[in-house]
Amino acid sequence: MQRISFLFLVIMISFSPIFAEEKPSPPGPPKEGYYILTYKNYGVNLEINVNGYDVRDGSSNEDSSGQADINYWIQPDKNKIKIRLTERKSKQKENTGLSKEAEVKLYIGQKGQFPDEGILLEHFQWPTSTKSSLGEWTEIELNPPFIPPSQLWKQAEAITLTKEKETSILEFAKEFTKILNTKEAKKILSWIQFRAKDTSEVRYYPYIEADELKSIAGMTKAIGSSWKLDTKNLKFTLVCNNQIVSVTNQKGEPILTSKKGAAIPLYLSWIGGQWVIVR
Question: Containing domain of residue 215, as a range?
């Protein structure tokens, strides 16, 4: 037995350098999470656009910093993030001595994390590392390591805007306004159910119909039957590979508002031969 034990010990010693060289494989890219943009701008106006959706529209003349969850707007295949910096309007040009700078970062974060604790995917910094001139768009093409769960991209057809399509959108919006003013939670939910289910999936939380009805009931109690539709000077904008149409006024503002100051943006898709509220 002693001879066998000795031989076993010699064999283990001879193989120990091989075992020591083995290293664990680095973790692969995440398979789920939240795509989060963080931004800040000083002395210049900042616009951020993701697949046609305006995260920031550049109209504010104020310095700012913030973050935006863009899971709703990440689509299969290639995604485009566009960034533009522009000069401040005349009132703001007095502060010419202050530095002008802007920064945009894209992270993948997990539940419970701060954005900067996530994985950094893209980094735009002006003027330090980005040579873009003021007024020019910088386009970042993103091939995401995963797509947030969503039924929308599987079901929504590509939209071609025509006069007939725009008229049918307007009729849909008028009917939806009537439904909102009924204050009947179940009727209202039937019109926004796709959105409620899909955005729950995108955000990784369960869809619970009772909670949705409770939320709608609270909204109708607070706002009542004061919803009004602005049908003048409508603007139809295709976003996300033409699978969603945004309906606003010419200023980009919601056309469905209430006397209480509330507003509902309209993002529609063509699914199964009809318009559906999706975002």
Answer: 153-277
Q: Could you tell me the pLDDT band of residue 11, with boundaries at 50, 70 and 90?
A: very low
SS3 for 125-174 is: EECCCCCCCCCCEEEEEECCCCCCCCCHHHHCECCCCCHHHHHHHHHHHH
Q: Specify the length of the chain in residues.
A: 279
Cα dihedral 229/231/233/237 (nearest 10): 70
- Residue range 142-147: mean pLDDT, rounded: 94
Check whether the bond before 24 is cis (ω within 30° of 0): no
* Domain edge (last residue) among 92, 110, 142: 142
Q: How far apart are CA 52 and CA 137, in angstroms?
A: 13
Looking at the fold, whether 163 and 247 belong to one and the same domain comes out as yes
Asked whether residue 130 carries a pLDDT value surpassing 80, the answer given is no
- Could you give the percent of the chain with pLDDT greater than 90? 78
Please give the helix or strand (H or E) that residue 19 lies within, else none: helix 2-21
